[in-house]
């Protein structure tokens, strides 16, 4: 009897078995992870070398740039619209365990270059385990009616998909049955200017919760990068990666006020405090009653204003 893999290749020679998600293989529920594949070496010194030319300083070796000079350059670029120096720092992430819903939004940002695992060719075996459960459902008891509806629907869709592929239907046709929360992987190459601009909106409480999970994973990947790469200067130059990770805050931390005040915008757990500071003319760097990571919490934009 012809096995399913042979049938798949008869249906479309470009098809292949997708590599299972590592979190599922480890026995955990699928969730977003980020690996920083590559990053500009000595990132802040490289940026400072470029920005130094604005004031006439010519740098031919980034090693000539001191820590104080690099941090001063980073502080300066945050106070001007001339953000070009941040574009000298490139980053490439591998995002895994992210939903197709997420990647539809990611590529619309146009902040970089993307290569995504294609369900036209990648056959998702055991896809049921790789459909991410939204937090509003995951927090329910296992016998909650809403959770049962979700799980039964996912099971039916994924089993039907595999049966179609095994019967010779090309994956690009069978994939129409898969839930949009089926997880995937994508390489995302960008620069620090685009990433910082992107962060302002996606770390806001208005953003979909998955964005906050992905951002936390990317921040952790940046902080882990020097040690993971075994860079000889990892311990002494960790400050560069910590300073870069500190750039990523909700947009209100850049503008000093809430940028989502329209009638169609949702409630935000920090909006009142942000607007109070704005009315008093207090700049974000003076805010002590707001944790910039507070909007990362599940439900930050879903609570009713009276709660």
Question: Main attributes?
Answer:
2 domains; 13 helices; globular; alpha+beta; Alpha-Beta Plaits; four-stranded antiparallel β-sheet; 307 residues
Quick overview of this protein structure:
By secondary structure, the chain is α+β, with helices and mostly antiparallel strands. 40% of the residues lie in helices and 11% in strands.
Describe this structure in words.
With 307 residues, this protein is an alpha+beta fold. It has two domains: 1-40 and 89-248, Alpha-Beta Plaits, CATH 3.30.70; 253-307, no CATH class. It is 40% helix and 11% strand. The protein is built from 13 helices and six strands. It has helices at residues 4-11, 22-25, 43-51, 67-77, 100-108, 135-138, 145-166, 171-174, 192-202, 209-228, 238-245, 252-255, 271-279; strands spanning 16-17, 33-39, 90-99, 112-116, 122-123, 183-191. The strands form two sheets. It has a four-stranded antiparallel beta sheet. Strands 1-5 form a two-stranded parallel ribbon. Helix 3 (43-51) packs across helix 4 (67-77) and helix 10 (209-228) packs antiparallel against helix 11 (238-245). The chain is globular and about 70 Å long. The model has no long low-confidence stretch (mean pLDDT 90).
> How would a textbook summarize the main sheet?
4 strands, antiparallel
What is the β-strand count? 6
The appropriate CATH architecture of the largest domain is: 2-Layer Sandwich
- Number of discrete helical segments: 13
Taking all residues together, what is the mean pLDDT? 90
Radius of gyration from CA coordinates: 23 Å
Helix content: 40-55%
CATH topology of the largest domain: Alpha-Beta Plaits
Number of domains: 2
pLDDT below 50 for ≥5 consecutive residues: which ranges? none
